[in-house]
Amino acid sequence: MNGSSRSLLWLSPLLLLAVVLSLFLGRYPAPYWTSPAMLSEDPLARQVLLNLRLPRILTACLLGMALGAGGMVLQMLFRNPLVEPGFLGVSQGAAFGAASAILFLGGGPLVIEAAAALCAGLGLALSYGLAQAIRYGGWVLRLVLAGIAVSALFSAGVGILKTVADPLAQLPGILFWTMGGLWRVTWSDLCTLLPAVIVGLTVVYLMRWRLNLLALSDETALSVGVAVGRERGLLLAAAVLAVATVVAVAGVVGWVGLIVPHIARRLSGADARRALPTAMLLGAGFTLLCDDMARTLVAGEIPLGILTALFGAVLFLGLMISRRTRLQR
Amino acid sequence: MSPPAMVALHDLWYAYNGSKTAALQGLTLEVPAGSVTAILGPNGSGKTTLLHLILGLLTPTRGTIELAGRPQTAYSRRELGRLLALVPQKEHLTFNFTVLEYVLLGRAPYLQLLETPRPTDRQAALEALRTVGAEALQERGVTALSGGEQQLVTLARALAQQPRLLLLDEPTAHLDLGNQARVLEVMRRLCAGGVTVLFTTHDPNAAAAVADHVILMRQGRVLAAAPTAAALTAENLRVTYNVPVEVAQVGGRLIALPSQEAHRHAQPDDGE
């Protein structure tokens, strides 16, 4: 076993430890730490831990896994290390779909999920189609430009929906989408999103070696016997399904899908056989830590999307700057 | 009696979308099995298009392609991946795989959709690296390789497919003299091991150095297809490149050079 497989070995117990510790982090009954002894002494504490914190912690992990895996899939399929679901219209598309469902379709959880998934796929298709039509720059740049434009279109759409939404009944639900957060998550939310996320992530995980093949040029991938169009479509559908489903519950949570695959490749190497599971574990850990801060640091709730953007952007800049020193390696 | 053909083209036409003239215009030719065959011609003569058609990346507008005696359309994508392999002009690699991880990708046609490489695939990949003399590179990152190293590693990835037909697109175009010689020597060795080698090149001397057969192309048509010495005549090369060429024998090998008076005879290259 070489050094790069070792990161997987220590990441799994570390994540498990973070999950257990997170359970005792919070602001009840006093800020920051709930003593494990309270579990048997205080029925309310037991309620808070098991019915509020635990589903939220597990959802944070799933959200991070889906975003980390989704980012890895998009980066490899598009041969572009600078894309993530939030940059390609997937997240904003999902937010737009969810906001439309809240406004026009009654807003049942399954309807929101379906509308989010549909518009997420639409956002990705639009970004991809536009990138091929743009007449400026190389492939990496064109895809980023198209993604920014499509995301902005969907954001504008969400903005318009906000102005016509009922300020009491509908607006809070829509507003929540634009910044992301997990404070409303219940066991039943978790159960609704679980099947789709598990299906999506399982397909991606099982096909992880194929990701390496699809990261080659189409010409080469085809010559080694890969049915390029079909396999790419399958992986994209699986990744978008997982991402859109978690976004339907958590709102737009950016930057996780961008930085997590970069760090995963640093730790495990580029081969997706190891980099993909590493990205899933790292994504879960990163999102969980951000969500712990979101609910613990201050008396109110800090929107999760703001924290992931803050830490994500700083980490990203750090990686991009230090990359120069590693080029010779 | 000539050996059976590995590639047989019959009246092959191909036109790119939106292009007025066809890139390939009625090619009929055979590539003998177990030989090294060079496709020689100026820029835009249709060499790469021909490789992409054999590969199945493009679909002919008209005509048929037979591979090892079977119509190309009768093969599945995976079967084609086991029959033939491609060394592209330039392999664009975005992610820094190790050389061994990259060469392992050549095992794809032997693996099911959800399978990951097995120990036997690893052996085959290492064997391919040994064949090109690059096993020392196996732990290096592919994006940090020099041009010559990258070409050898790409060749190893193609060999990991254990193909019966190896297609190479301008294999020596960006290499220095030493690396050119190394790549040509590997091609020669593969052929001795029973692999049919078909490569495109701008350079008549690369063709003269390794090819048993030469196909001369110009503007989507075949000008000549013959054993090397018969094909590489001064007259054939003059017609192919539209410039006077001198052919000489040096140490038993053919050398082609634009003739001294080339500039005086130069005329706009408008083809026919």
Brief write-up:
The complex is a heterodimer of chains A (329) and B (272). Chain A is mainly α.
Set out the fold topology.
The complex is a heterodimer of chains A (329) and B (272).
Chain A: H1 3-23, E1 25-26, E2 32-33, H2 38-41, H3 43-77, H4 90-104, H5 109-133, H6 139-164, H7 171-179, H8 187-206, H9 208-214, H10 218-223, H11 228-250, H12 256-268, H13 272-296, H14 304-326
Antiparallel strand pairs in A: 1-2
Chain B: E1 5-14, E2 24-32, E3 36-40, H1 47-55, E4 62-67, E5 70-71, H2 77-83, E6 84-87, H3 99-104, H4 119-131, H5 147-159, E7 165-169, H6 177-192, E8 196-201, H7 204-210, E9 213-218, E10 221-227, H8 228-231, H9 234-241, E11 245-250, E12 253-258, H10 262-265
Parallel strand pairs in B: 3-8, 3-9, 6-7, 7-8
Antiparallel strand pairs in B: 1-2, 1-4, 4-5, 9-10, 11-12
Could you give the count of β-strands of chain A?
2
Count structural domains of chain A: 1
> Approximately what portion of the residues of chain B adopt beta-strand conformation?
25-35%
CATH topology name of chain A: ABC transporter involved in vitamin B12 uptake, BtuC
For the largest sheet of chain A, list the strands in their spatial order.
1-2
Query: What ranges of chain A have pLDDT less than 50 throughout 5 or more consecutive residues?
Result: 324-329
Mean pLDDT of chain B: 91
Structural class of chain A: mainly alpha
Weakly predicted, low-confidence segments of chain B: none
What's the CATH superfamily of chain A, by name?
ABC transporter involved in vitamin B12 uptake, BtuC
Approximately how much beta-strand content do the residues of chain A carry? under 5%
Give the strand tally of chain B.
12
Helix content of chain A: over 70%
Helix run count of chain A: 14
